[in-house]
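2024-03-11 09:14:02 DEBUG pipeline.ingest accepted 1 chain
2024-03-11 09:14:02 DEBUG pipeline.ingest length=295
2024-03-11 09:14:03 DEBUG pipeline.predict start
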Amino acid sequence: MKIAVIGASGQLGNDVVAAFSANGDTALILTHQDIEVTEVDSVSRALREARPDVIVNTSAMHHVENCERDPQKALAVNAIGPRNLALIAEDLGATLMHVSTDYVFDGIKNSPYVEEDAPNPLNVYGISKLAGEHFVRRTAKKHFVIRTSALYGANPCRAKGGLNFIELMLKLSKERDELRVVDNEFVSPTATAELAQQICVLSRSDCYGLYHATAEGSCSWYEFAREIFAITGTSVNLKVAGANEFPAKVARPKYSVLENRALKSHSLNVFKTWQEGLHNYLGQRAKSPSVQIYS
C-alpha cells in the first residue's frame, strides 16, 4: 500500500514511516514544508499528487501551554487540520488514520477510560483535539481515530524541548543530587515504536472507528521514573514530590489511563505492558550511537 505520513519528521511520525516501510509499504514522507494542514488547498495539492491508500496524521499542536495562549492556532491545527484531511481523504476514497489524545478526558473517573466514555476536556489542547476527532468521524467514512497517552520515542519531540520523559530523567539524574517527581498523576507510558506497529496492524483492518491505543497497565510519573532508574542501574535519590510542589500552569487530567477495549474486541491489540515497552526502548537506546546515554 501507499501510505502518506503527515508529520513524518516528528517523534511518532518517524516511527510510523519505519513501521510501514518494514512492512513492505511505500511510505510517503510529508512534513510541514510539504503540507499545511490548516489550508485545504495545500492539503488537496499534496494528497491528490500522492494518491495514497492510507493517510496517517501525526501532526498536532500539542504544547499544552502554547495551546492555552493561542487557542485560535490550536483549533486551526488540531481541529480544522483534521477536517481538511478528512474532506480530501473522503474525496480520494483513502483511509484516514488520525492520532488523538487521552487529554479529551477530565481524569475524574479513576479507572481506565474506554471508547464509550464521554469526553470532557479540561484545556484548550484537549478541546481542540476533541473537535478534530468529531470532524474526522463525521466527514471520512473510512477513518480510524486513535487516542494514545504519554508518548516517548527515540526521535526528538521539538515541542518538549527535544527530550522525552525518559531522557529528561536520566539527564537530570546526572545534574542534581535529588529528584522529586509527582506520584498523583497516572498515565500509560507508550513507546512510539509500539504505537506505530499498532497503527500498521490497524491499517489492514476495515473495522473503522474510534480506538484507544496505549501500552498495557498504568503508573504514576514517580513510578515510571523509578522503573527507568531501576532498569538502567542509575543511582539517584528519587523522592515523591509534594502535592502542590509543581503547580500546573494549565489544568490537566490527573488520571488519563486508557483501556484498549475496541482493539481487543477485534483481536487487533498488539501492545505489551508499559514495563516491557520501556525495557525495549532502553535496550534499543543502549545499542544506538545516535542516542546520548546518560549513564
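2024-03-11 09:14:41 DEBUG pipeline.report DSSP finds ten helices and twelve strands in the chain.
2024-03-11 09:14:41 DEBUG pipeline.predict end
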